[in-house]
Design goal:
two-stranded antiparallel sheet; mainly alpha; Arc Repressor Mutant, subunit A; flat; 8 helices; 2 domains; about 150 residues
Length: about 150
């Protein structure tokens, strides 16, 4: 008797495909994953060509990256204290390296948009390609509603 394979409506993948993507995104080799999941390596290579598998795999990598970012932030205070100690060192080369590292981080820090009205105006506008236009079209009602929602005048 054949068993019907369950496909997730959210991902378009079977549980085996999802678990395979999770293992691959966590850094395991195709050979290792194939062995663990009792799959042929060629099956995994075929799945990697499928859009839904690629998207799920990319989401897993994004989740892992976010998790690692959170872990790094938790180490931030300790790192700053160590950097502060380096900058107080009697070794001028160590002080210079630490100072340059701080300057580089400040220069390369990305700063998000700080104009809420501009962001809301973009949200209330249709993209030019949606209507075959050269410019975006502002939906005034939607813009006013968003301003009100965010308590802006």
């Amino acid at each position: 008797m054949l068993q019907k394979t369950t496909i997730s409506e959210e991902t378009g993948l079977t549980p085996v495909q999802e678990q395979t993507a999770i293992l691959l995104a966590s850094g395991e080799s195709i050979s290792s994953v194939a062995e663990k999941m009792q799959l042929n390596r060629s099956t995994i290579y075929q799945w990697q060509e499928v859009l839904t598998f690629q998207c799920f795999f990319n989401q897993q990598k994004q989740d892992i990256r976010e998790e690692m970012r959170n872990e790094l932030f938790s180490l931030g205070k300790m790192a700053v204290n160590i950097l502060r100690d380096c900058m107080k060192s009697n070794d001028s080369r160590l002080r210079l390296k630490a100072s340059l590292a701080v300057i580089e981080k400040i220069e390369n820090a990305s700063i998000g948009d700080y104009n809420a009205r501009k962001i809301l105006k973009e949200k209330a506008s249709s993209a030019p390609f949606d209507w075959g236009l050269d410019e975006a079209v502002l939906n005034e009602e939607k813009y006013k509603s968003l301003l009100k929602e965010y308590r802006l005048k």
